[in-house]
Amino acid sequence: MGSTERIRQVALRVAKWVRAGHRMVVVPSAMSGETNRLLALAQELSPQALTPAYYRELDMLAATGEQVSSALLAIALQALGLQSVSYAGWQVPIRTDSAYTKARIESIDDARLRADLDAGKVVIVTGFQGLDEGGNVTTLGRGGSDTSAVAVAAAMKADECLIYTDVDGVYTTDPRVVPEARRLHTLSFEEMLEMASLGSKVLQIRSVEFAGKYKVRLRVLSSFTPWDIDIDEEANSGTLITFEEDHTMEQAIVSGIAFNRDESKISVLGVPDKPGIAYQILGPVADANVEVDMIIQNISKEGKADFSFTVHRNDHPKTMELLRNQVVPKLGAMDVIGDTKICKVSIVGIGMRSHAGVARKMFQALSEEGINIQMISTSEIKTSVVLDEKYLELAVRALHKAFGLEAEPA
Amino acid sequence: MGSTERIRQVALRVAKWVRAGHRMVVVPSAMSGETNRLLALAQELSPQALTPAYYRELDMLAATGEQVSSALLAIALQALGLQSVSYAGWQVPIRTDSAYTKARIESIDDARLRADLDAGKVVIVTGFQGLDEGGNVTTLGRGGSDTSAVAVAAAMKADECLIYTDVDGVYTTDPRVVPEARRLHTLSFEEMLEMASLGSKVLQIRSVEFAGKYKVRLRVLSSFTPWDIDIDEEANSGTLITFEEDHTMEQAIVSGIAFNRDESKISVLGVPDKPGIAYQILGPVADANVEVDMIIQNISKEGKADFSFTVHRNDHPKTMELLRNQVVPKLGAMDVIGDTKICKVSIVGIGMRSHAGVARKMFQALSEEGINIQMISTSEIKTSVVLDEKYLELAVRALHKAFGLEAEPA
């Protein structure tokens, strides 16, 4: 299907909601491939620039992709006989900080949008973009249109924010790894936040954070559902991310299994075991703008400790070099070793709060498959383990089965 | 050449001017074919909409084309080591009326641009677009970037406004018709205005009007000149459109020959010759939004007059129908006849003001070629004739020769 046909389908879907009596604000993303096309043009002209002035122009450039789809959607809605008007981020305005290419929304003025809704119009708000204090265009980073949508829903106090994505909801785990994976009808906001940060790519994590802060009811559903399915069916499709924990929630202890291959493990061996080790190792790492995820420190022997942590795989070479050249000599550590062939697998479930023995069951399931656990990290509603990368699929399948995720909870 | 390569060439040219000590504001147009691509998308979604709400969205859409090239040019300049910043029309702001798709510039705030120039930056102002009183994006119509450039030059009180086009200046006539046509080094503003309105497509007529109103020195030059030619050579290339009539001007009586095939002739025959005929015929035509160009009324015989005028060829069928059905019966005229196979040929020259016999020489030249003149219209600095379309090339060549335009004036 051509790209305008896609926009026409969206317009038909919006019209269905409007004709059922809903007042709609729509936040379209750019047409498929458009953002990449624009950024490639910039890349051709200036492959290596990293200045604020460059990022400012990159945002001016990238913001046009969404403006095109907003205007086209307004036109498509008008062609269906609806009144519609589109606004760029600066017209609303959606105010952000000045962090070009990854700006954060600070406020949204809903006056203009509300007046248009009152006048019977379908309002299109251009996603992914905003306006900083200096009057410059900013963009919100990959998946930023989701965040725009949630932020607009929060500002408008919308009943629900429907996020149409390329999947039909949030699954117990990735169906490409576990064919028995099951779509979740509801998921708590905290679980969604963990799933998003642990590697589930359904929503930009910032959009989930925003939903949490402003208590926006989010529904993740599929943009590939035919526009003309029954509206009640559509209204109950996908996955609802909710704040009402205790009643409508499925009563599973573990709701989902998240995983990723993005990290690498680094161990500093034989560090003299005295106060301040963590700071002396991780201080320089943080100074180099490397984010550290899991951290483990074990006493080894003879007053020496081993210290391990994970970083994003892209940061692996830089971090290794930093440790070898600066940290190890200074600390008097024995060695530093790195392993990029790891994965992280996590079980997530709000039921873990009130159920003992969940982690034990996880370790047992992995043990029965002969999978060695390299690192463990826990929080209130998730347990993560680091494994050899080759065990990823096996581990996820074993855990999915052990926690009975293929079946609807009772 | 790819489109980013073209932008890089523009950046190199701008950098040359900047390094020679000039403070530059640059107004880029959209990348080749981009505006048409965007408008075609709108057309696919809504082929027939003609509402203000539709035109508003069309402007939101079309304005993105120039925003892309502005941001890319800023990036290209930064890659050359220059400081540069781009502004959309609304950021300057360039204020316009609300006539979507053909808005007129009302004011330009130069504060931000001036501060950036003072800070040593090359300022990119996005052409073709503005902001109306209601905070909506507007566009200025085809060729609108020229008008933006002239308006910015006026606001900034620039020394000169360089318009880089796909031709290397203004010619005595179209070189495709007369191979001996000669580039004019200078041309008065009034002559340029006549040339533009008579069919020379070098500049949007509104940009010339704007230059006249604010006395902006315009130079029309070629964007295909290699960027690295000597800067003094470039500074004197093309055609300078000036207000200094009496000294630097070339002393030709006729400066150029303009022509077009856009018009058609309509004659209402046998109209009772009494006061108010013109109004009764042209009133309904104007009410139908048809613009009339040349008008002639002759007494014929027995108290009946013939009344002829020209309209744009696109308006021909509509106008004929209107006259046949409404005007002719009401007036008691004999008939109405139309002719779409005409052309208009004009001689333009500020020297005509002070030289008698110019029109006579024109008529003589046409007569010697056996070309019949159908209508004549004169103004202070131009004489236009309407001819059978088949004589167009012959007439233009004969006039070019008769007025000695192939040779530089003494």
Explain the overall architecture:
2 copies of one chain form a homodimer. The first copy, chain A, is an alpha+beta fold. Chain A has a domain at 3-250: 3-Layer(aba) Sandwich (Carbamate kinase), CATH 3.40.1160. The model of chain A has no long low-confidence stretch (mean pLDDT 91). Chain A has 12 helices and 19 strands. Chain A has helices at 3-19, 34-45, 52-79, 111-118, 144-156, 189-197, 205-214, 231-235, 277-287, 316-331, 358-368, 392-402; strands spanning 25-26, 84-87, 94-96, 105-108, 122-125, 129-131, 137-139, 161-165, 186-188, 218-222, 239-242, 256-260, 263-272, 292-299, 304-312, 335-339, 342-348, 373-379, 382-388. A 4-stranded mixed sheet of chain A has the order 8-10-11-9. A 4-stranded antiparallel sheet of chain A has the order 12-17-19-18, sandwiched between helices. A 4-stranded antiparallel sheet of chain A has the order 14-15-13-16, covered by helices on one side. The interface between A and B is large, with 42 and 43 residues.
